[in-house]
Amino acid sequence: xxxxxxEHYNYWIAILLMMVGFYxxxxxxxxxKKLVGLNIFQTSVFLLYISMAKVxxxxxPILDDRFQxxxxxxxxxxxxxxxxxxxxxxxxxxxxxxxxxxxxGTIEEDELDLMDGET
Amino acid sequence: xRHHRVLRIISKLLIPFIMLFALYVQFHGDFGPGGGFQAGVxxxxxxxxxxxxxxxxxxxxxxPPSVVTRLIAAGVLIYAGTGYAGLIGGANFxxxxxxxxxxxxxxxxxxxxxxxxxxxxxxxxxITIFFLFAxxxx
Amino acid sequence: MxxxxxxxPALQVVVPLVAAPLCLLAGRGGLAWIIAFLAAAAxxxxxxxxxxxxxxxxxxxxxxxxWAPPWGIEYVVDTAxxxxxxxxxxIATVVLLFCYTSVGKEIRAGRQHLFYCMYTLCLTGLLGIAxxxxxxxxxxxxxxxxxxxxxxxxMGGQRKALTAAFQYLVxxxxxxxxxxxxxxxxxxxxxxxxxxxLATRIPxxxxxxxxxxxxxxxxxxxxxxxxxxxxxxxxxxxxxFAPSGVSAFIAATATKxxxxxxxxxxxxxxxxxxxxxxxxxxxxxxxxxxxxMFAGSFSAIFQRDIKRMLAYSSVAQIGYITLAIALASxxxxxxxxxxxFNHGLMKAALFCAMGCIFYRIGSTRIDxxxxxxxxxxxTFAAIAAAxxxxxxxxxxxxxxxxWYLVQAALxxxxxxxxxxxxxxxxxxxxxVWRLVEALYFKEPPPGRGTxxxxxxxxxxPTLLLAGANIYFGLDTRLPIEMxxxxxxxxxxxxxx
Lengths: 119, 138, 496
Known about the structure:
The complex is a heterotrimer.
Chain A: H1 2-7, H2 9-27, H3 31-53, H4 73-104, H5 109-118
Helix pairs in contact in A: 2-3, 3-4
Chain B: H1 5-27, H2 36-54, H3 56-62, H4 65-88, H5 103-134
Helix pairs in contact in B: 1-2, 2-3, 2-5, 4-5
Chain C: H1 8-26, H2 29-57, E1 60-63, E2 74-77, H3 79-106, H4 112-131, H5 135-154, H6 160-190, H7 195-201, H8 209-226, H9 235-241, H10 244-269, H11 272-278, H12 281-301, H13 306-327, H14 330-361, H15 372-375, H16 377-391, H17 397-411, H18 415-441, H19 456-474, H20 477-492
Antiparallel strand pairs in C: 1-2
Helix pairs in contact in C: 1-2, 1-4, 2-3, 2-4, 3-4, 3-10, 3-14, 3-19, 3-20, 4-5, 4-10, 5-6, 5-10, 6-8, 6-9, 8-10, 9-10, 9-13, 10-13, 10-14, 10-20, 12-13, 12-18, 13-14, 13-18, 14-16, 14-17, 14-19, 14-20, 16-18, 16-19, 17-18, 17-19
C-alpha cells in the first residue's frame, strides 16, 4: 500500500497542489490571494501533464544519435500553451484587481459585497 | 534606484547578454529547446530590468508604448501571414512545405518565421503589461 | 473563389483572428468597426456555405498545416457544429451593426478600437471551439473566447462591471482548468487528442478510473462554462453590467457554444452508451436542469434591473436545453439544438432592445423604464416579439423549441416533465408580463422628459433579430433540417 502511494508521488503532489489552490480560491476573501490560489491550481495541472510525459529511462526530447528513448514532448508543448494562457489570465486578473482597487478602494471580497449591495 | 551605482552598472552589463540569450533561444528553437514564447519573455525581461533600474520614463523612450502596442499586432499578423502563405502556395493553412524549395527547407523557414511572430507578440505584450502596471500609480 | 472553397474551415477561424490585430492597428473606433464588421460578415458567409455543404455532402475534414490526424489538428465540420457556427457568426454580425452607435456612446473614444479587437478575438474563440476536432484545441479556443469576454465585460460603464468580470474570470478559469484536467487524463489513457480517435479508443478502457475521472472533470468544467445551475452564479452580474452589445453577443453565443461542446463530448467522444447507460449522466443533468428552470425563472421575477432579469431567464433557458440533452434521444438532441439556436435569437433581440433603452435613458431599471413603450414603439415591438418567443407562443421561434421539447419528453415517457415545462413557462409569463406592464401600462417616473425612439442604426439590428424570432417560428426548414441531421450524427457517435 505504502509503496503504491510512494511510487506515484508526483500525482500526490499534483493533487495536493490542486486542493491547496482550489481551497485558496474559495476560502480567501482577498482578490490577490484568490489569484495566487488560481495560479497554484493551474500549476498543479501543468505538473500533472509534465509528469505524464516522462518515459522511464527517457532523456530530454532533443534528437541525438546517442539516445534511443525520449520523453514525450507533446505534453510539454501543450503545457507551454497552457502556461501562456495562465500568464494571460493572471495579468488580466491583476489588471481587474488594480481597477477594482481604484474604484472601490478595497480588494476584500466582503467589503466589496457590502459596497455593491448599497448602490 | 538612481543612486544604486552597483545595480546600474551590473544591469547595464547584463542587458546585452539577456538580449543575446533571448535571440539564441529564439533562433535555436528548431534544433533544441526554445522558441518564441520563452525568447519573447527573456527579451522583454531586458526591457523590464532597464525600466526597473533607470525608471519608467527612460524605458518608455527606448520602447515607446505606441510602437510596442503595434508590435503586438504585428507579431500576430506575421504568424497569420505565414499561414496564408501556405494557402497561396496551394497547400493547407499553416502548411510550411510549400514555403521553400523542398519540404524540409519549407518547414525550417516556416517554423522560423512563425516563432519570430510569436516572439514579437510575446515580448511586446510583456513589455506592455509592465508599462501599464508600473505606470498606474501617478 | 473556387480555390478557396476547400479551405473554408480554416478561413472560418483565421479571418476573424486576423481582424483582431488589424483592429488594434486601426487605432480609431470607426475604422476598427469596419474591419470587425467585414470579418464577421465574411465568417457568416463562410458558415452559411459550410452549413450548405455539410447538409448536402456530409461532414468536411480539414488538416491544419497539412498534418494528417490524429497527429495534426483536425477541423471537422458536420451539421451539428455548422449550425452553431452559423448562429455565432450571424449573431456576431448583427450585434456588430448594433454596436456602431451603442459602443460610440458607452465606450470612451480612445478605447473603441480595443473593444472591437476583443470582440473579434471573442468571435474567433467561439468559432474555433465549435469547429475544431481536437480536444486540446477546444481548451485553447475556450480560453481565447473567455479571456476576451472578461475584458469586454470589464468595459461596462459601472464599477460593478469590474467585480462581475473578476468573478467570471475566477469561475471561468476553474471551469477551463477542469476541462484541461479531463483532457489530460484522456490523453494519458489513450495517447491521442483527436476527438474521432478518442472516440474509437475510449470504449476499450471505459471502466478505468482515469477515464471516469476525465468524464467527470470535463462535464463539470463545461457545466461551469455553460452556467448550468448551480454553477451559474457568475452569469447574472456578468450579463447585467457588460456593455449592451457585449451582453447581447455573449448571452446569445458563449454559453451555447459550451453546451455544444458538452453535446460533442458526451455523444461523439464518450458515446451515448458510456455517458448515459453506464454513468447515468441523464440523472445527473436532469435534476439541475429542472431546478434551473424554476430557480432561474423565480429569481428573474424579483429582479429590479431588466438586464439582470434577462440573465436569470437565461439560466432557466439553459435548464431547458440541458433537460433536452438529458433525454439522450434523437428528439431530445434535436430539441436541445433548436433551443440553442432560438434562445440565441431571443436573448440577442432582448438585450439589443435593452441597449436601445439604455442608449436613451442611461438605465435599464424597471422603475426607470416605466411608460417607455409608448415613446419608443419600435423598441417595444421588438421586446414584445422576442418576449412572446421566450414564452413559446405559437408563430414564434420559441414555440418550435417548446414543441420539440415537449415531444421529446413524451417520447421518453416522461409526461411529468411536460407538466414541469408548462408550469415553468407560466413563471416566464410573469416576468415577461412585468416587463411589458412596466413599459406600456405604467406612468413614466416624474421628471423624465420625452424620450425619442432609438437611432435607426440600433433599431434596425434589434428589429432584425426580433423579426428572426418570428421568421423561424413560421419557416422552420433550416433549423429542423440541420438539427435532424445533427442529432442523427451525434447519436451515431464514433466516426464523424
